[in-house]
Design goal:
InterPro entries: Depp_CoAkinase, P-loop_NTPase. The structure is a single chain. This protein has helices at 14-23, 31-39, 42-52, 64-71, 75-99, 131-142, 146-153, 159-163, 175-193, and strands spanning 2-8, 28-30, 104-108, 123-128, 168-171. The chain has 195 residues and is α/β, with parallel strands linked by helices. The chain folds into 2 domains: 1-27 and 104-195, P-loop containing nucleotide triphosphate hydrolases (Rossmann fold, 3-Layer(aba) Sandwich), CATH 3.40.50.300; 33-99, no CATH class. The chain is globular and about 50 Å long. It binds adenosine-5'-triphosphate. Adenosine-5'-triphosphate (ATP) is lined by residues 8, 10-16, 110, 137-138, 141, 172-173, 175, 178.
Length: 195
């Protein structure tokens, strides 16, 4: 079973594109969702709270906006958090992958090239959109400020740097055109996987 890595900067539309593959019956693993679930595990939450000097909520959870305020301003803190969460996401992915039965699967993550993980995948897809469009989308979706979005973007490489490394690029501006690009890639991946 072929593994396809799907990535893109914040607000580029990775999840929107991932959903389009899912609509074509392709299994999708969303690393961000898994990371959030892992953070809700009491043992992990306790470790993260201790590492960053945070208090857990009454339900024993991390208050995510407090954590975001720390890690999105401090690269070292973000790396520290990733070193707690990422190995666990990887474990979950391995287990999930072995349970799938499909011609190929999609692994969606905001960071693939930045982590030197492109070689884990048969192909990589980069979803792109102009920076201003991406910022507007995230401000609208998450009700956050322009500065908040910009500071989250700092941990990610520029699109031009990632474009050089990606096998395929999906320009996500018009949803109909995005869907068409997804369909074309889907056909290509099916052909490869059935060879
Ligand atoms: N082509 C498009 N036209 C209009 N709105 C779009 C388009 N693509 C995505 N959106 C909207 O923009 C927002 C961001 O898209 P999405 O969540 O898919 O991006 P993402 O890359 O997964 O973002 P993040 O990295 O922040 O999780 C969502 O509200 C989504 O509905």
């Amino acid at each position: 079973m072929i593994k396809i890595g799907l990535t893109g900067g914040i607000g580029s539309g990775k999840t929107t594109v991932a959903q389009m593959f899912q609509d074509l019956q392709i299994p999708v693993f969303i690393a961000d969702i898994e990371a959030k679930k892992i953070l809700d595990d009491f043992k992990v939450a306790s470790k993260v709270a201790e590492t960053f000097g945070l208090n857990l909520t009454a339900e024993g959870l991390i208050h995510k906006p407090d954590l975001a305020a720390i890690v999105f301003k401090d690269d070292h803190a973000l790396q520290n958090l990733n070193s707690i969460i990422h190995p666990r996401v990887h474990e979950r992915f391995k287990k999930w992958f072995n349970e799938q039965d499909a011609p190929y699967i999609i692994y969606e993550a905001a960071i693939i090239f930045e982590k030197d993980r492109a070689s884990d995948f048969y192909y990589t897809i980069l979803v792109t959109a102009p920076e201003k469009v991406r910022i507007d989308r995230v401000m609208l979706r998450d009700h956050v400020s322009y500065e908040d979005v910009k500071s989250r973007m700092k941990a990610q490489w520029s699109e031009s740097k990632k474009k050089k490394l990606a096998d395929f690029i999906i320009e996500n501006i018009n949803l109909k055109q995005t869907q068409q690009q997804v369909k074309e890639l889907h056909e290509k991946f099916l052909n490869i996987s059935y060879k």
